[in-house]
Specification:
Blueprint lengths: L1 E5 L3 H12 L3 E6 L2 H10 L3 E4 L5 H6 L7 E4 L4 H14 L4 E5 L3 H9 L10 E3 L1 H14 L5 E5 L4 E7 L11 H4 L9 E7 L2 E3 L12 E7 L3 H8 L8 E5 L3 H12 L3 E6 L2 H10 L4 E4 L5 H6 L7 E4 L4 H13 L4 E5 L6 H6 L5 E2 L1 H10 L3 E2 L2 E6 L5 E7 L20 E8 L2 E3 L12 E7 L3 H8 L1
Parallel strand pairs: 1-2, 1-4, 2-3, 4-5, 5-6, 12-13, 12-15, 13-14, 15-16, 16-17
Antiparallel strand pairs: 7-8, 8-11, 9-10, 9-11, 18-19, 19-20, 20-23, 21-22, 21-23
Helix pairs in contact: 1-14, 6-9, 6-14
């Protein structure tokens, strides 16, 4: 498979990095020659210097042989134009564009003109960020939550404290402690390392542990992590930009009580006109006295979605210190993610991670399709359908051979998802949800075919 990635910024670089690690032929296009020089030193990809929206550049990048063009430059208009040109020059190549302007995105999708402009699909970072926050609100207090398979399956990540009963025990010893458990630990993030565990893996304090759990057993996951998930009713949002506005509207639709704090008086007036029931407050969310006066201690979740990462972190720390039950922090520069975790703010969202995950869903790698990435992107959730005649069909999972850095997290059969055991029989037509390190993904096709 061949993918052309247009734009060597943070999103484009990370897409190229992930695809190249999975042995996919990647060409990275950017007009900044110096930036491409930095990429060559870091990644095993081809580079082309030029404008993505110029036919000569697209031809030089090998558009006629590309399966997918991903346009994620800093200009929405250039991304759309590049896709339109690609449609004319190579109709068989699929085309994706990142569109950050929410009004433009709505115009393209609601009026149904995006396909006519050459867009096979659109990546909207704002909607993706809001969707991620809504997933967090269903399970307040968790470090990470990933919803797949139409809501039938969730991957819940939570860091273990020192007193957690599983610390110092193997997984084989830990999970049976939860009576009637239907849980599976599918990944452990320890420092900069991602471990695909076995029953012999010993858990340690500060491990970020990911559980696979079906929607009907979420309470058991909560008991394992020592969390009790109560419905969220009162939400405090810091930041009245595009993300804050879109989030407040979604929360209003769910009949939640919303307070939104924004520093700009002009923006506050606009927000007041756009929102129905939300209370718009002009103020600085990094000011302790402002948060106290506005009753932040009474909120179920404080969500910082401003454009300044440092202010997002400070406001969340203040809100938690003043009594907010839970916090969610937006991180624009994902390099800050380890710092956010180190200061105790585990629930974080990143438009960049959401955008990368959304694009990877459209990249087919043999029989495997990536449907999500875990927190530090060291592992992915991939979906593999067992074909007719597969050597897996009719076999118990324990008798099947998968790469060492991959684990079957769930089996989806029809409308039902189940957490498998060693004796689970695999059938043709089953969809396997597999958590794997990037280097193991190319090997999955051999295991399933």
């Amino acid at each position: 498979m061949k993918v052309i990635v247009g734009g060597a910024g943070e999103v484009g670089f990370n897409i190229a990095e992930k695809l190249s690690r999975e042995k996919i032929d990647v060409v990275l296009v950017d007009s900044d020659r110096e930036r491409l020089g930095e990429v060559v030193d870091s990644l095993d990809v081809q580079t082309v210097c030029g404008s993505l929206s110029h036919p000569i550049t697209l031809r030089e990048a090998g558009l006629d042989k590309a399966d997918l063009l991903v346009a994620v430059t800093g200009s929405d208009e250039s991304n759309i134009l590049a896709c339109r040109l690609a449609q004319l020059l190579s109709p068989e190549t699929r085309r994706a564009a990142r569109v950050r302007d929410s009004l433009l995105y709505r115009s393209l999708t609601e009026e149904g003109v995006h396909e006519g402009l050459g867009l096979s699909f659109i990546i909207d970072p704002i909607s993706l960020t809001v969707d991620t926050i809504i997933d967090f609100l269903a399970l307040p207090g968790v470090g990470d939550v990933i919803d797949v398979s139409g809501g039938r399956l969730k991957f819940i990540g939570q860091r273990l404290h020192r007193q957690h009963p599983a610390v110092g025990r193997t997984l084989a010893e830990s999970l049976p402690r939860v009576e009637g458990s239907v849980l599976l630990v599918v990944a452990v993030h320890r420092g900069h390392e991602v471990i695909i565990p076995t029953g012999r893996t010993v858990l340690k304090a500060r491990d970020l542990v990911y559980l696979a759990v079906t929607s009907e057993h979420l309470d058991e996951a909560g008991r394992f992590f020592g969390l009790e998930w109560r419905p969220v009713k009162n939400v405090f949002v810091m930041g009245g930009g595009e993300v804050g506005l879109a989030l407040a509207k979604r929360l209003e639709e769910r009949d939640m009580t919303v307070k939104l704090i924004e520093r700009s008086a002009e923006r506050c007036e606009f927000l007041s006109r756009e929102l129905n029931g939300a209370i718009v407050i002009k103020g600085d969310a990094t000011d302790q006295f402002v948060l106290e006066d506005e009753g932040v201690s009474e909120c179920d979740v404080f969500i910082a979605v401003g454009t300044d990462d440092e202010k997002n972190m400070v406001s969340c720390l203040l809100a938690r210190r003043l009594g907010a039950a839970n916090t969610i922090t937006r991180v624009n520069r994902y390099s800050y993610a380890p710092l956010v975790s180190a200061i105790g703010l585990e629930s974080l969202v990143s438009a960049r991670v959401a955008a990368v995950s959304a694009i990877l869903k459209h990249v087919k790698k043999g029989l495997a399709v990536t449907v999500a990435t875990l927190r530090n992107e060291g592992a992915e959730v991939v979906e593999v359908e067992v074909p007719e005649g597969s050597k897996l069909a009719g076999k118990a999972l324990m008798a099947s051979k998968f790469p060492a850095d991959a684990i079957v997290a769930a089996v989806v059969r029809g409308e039902r998802a189940v957490i498998p055991r060693g004796e689970t029989i695999i059938e043709a037509g089953d969809v396997l949800m597999i958590v794997a390190r990037a280097e193991a993904i190319p090997l999955l096709e051999k295991a399933v075919d």
